[in-house]
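In the current project phase, we have settled on a layout for protein records. A sample record is reproduced below.
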Amino acid sequence: MTLYRPNRLSSRAMAYVLAGGRGSRLKELTDRRAKPAVYFGGKSRIIDFALSNALNSGIRKMAVATQYKAHSLIRHLNRGWSFFRSERNEFLDILPASQQMDEENWYRGTADAVTQNIAIIDSYQVDYLLVLAGDHIYKMDYELMLQQHVDSGADVTVGCLTVPRDQASAFGVMDVDAEGRIVSFLEKPKDPPGMPDDPNSTLASMGIYVFDWKFLRELLLKDAANPNSSHDFGHDLIPDLVKNAKAVAHRFTESCVRSAPDAPAYWRDVGTIDAFWQANIDLTDFSPELDLYDRDWPIWTYGEITPPAKFIHDDEDRRGHAVSSMVSGGCIISGSEVRNSLLFTGVKANSYASLKSVVAMPYVGIGRHARLTNVVIDRGARIPEGLVVGEDADEDARWFRRTENGVTLITQDMLDRRDAGA
């Protein structure tokens, strides 16, 4: 008897999100949470983008592998992603490193994070495994990548960004032939190869892979038995498959979800303070490249119940207002000025304060007469009255984390040290 198989490949696939990394380049923003759990865009967390892409693509079987300081991430997933129903054959499993295969507590690499959960993946009887990084901002229809994987007969399909050749040295680069087959994998090469149809551009790995599960399962068991392997997709498995199997590149431009037909393909690694600040501030533009208002491809997240934002006081020198900014629910702009800024839930800015190009995470309090420019403020920080940041580089660097590009990160611990040293 022939078994029925749904036509849509996403219904036969599982999204496996690797979300265990700290993201050390975000400095103090990841002291208490993993990078995928960092807030982004006014309401979301970074991991919501990979999960939302999977859900919007039709994938209803997901797993998230966690490791570094996972409590904030697990709490978010439990609150915001608990709508799956097992009776409809859908789920989201949270998979902390838990000694599944031996007595080692931690995942030893990205591939090992899958290997340790082989039995769990087996139990869901999927045909394809889509391996995703949980720490990038983008919109992508994974069904199109799955379809290319099947049509090409690939052993692995690698999601790739098209980047200018002179900027590609920071990436793992794919050298492809005219049919899109990867002929070599180069890790951060000094002279990246061009593409067959565009010698001035290069294909860089997005850290997204599609495998037939049966094929990957055997590959992982072989890798686990190799004492010389670091058990990592990018360092071990993918380079080996490029040499000894059929690895095919999937161009992000072919499956990205755009805000308009002529819009650029939007993808961001917000792995530094500067990149994180810039990507959030970009959302305040008149027509940002990332469309968070698209109801056809929404970014799902935990929807906290809050009252509407409120703007109070209307005196000449004490007027609560926001210009070219995004202000979330529960915020109170009380006689203060907000420009080109993004305020997360529950931010309160008191009278005579001035915020310019500020990213304020949830429940930040800003005291009277504070003046803040080009700043990121961590969750719950209380900015004291009269604090000035963004006008004196040396003074900013004395107490806070200031980048070479002039963005200042403020956390409550930094403010406490400042108060103690004053």
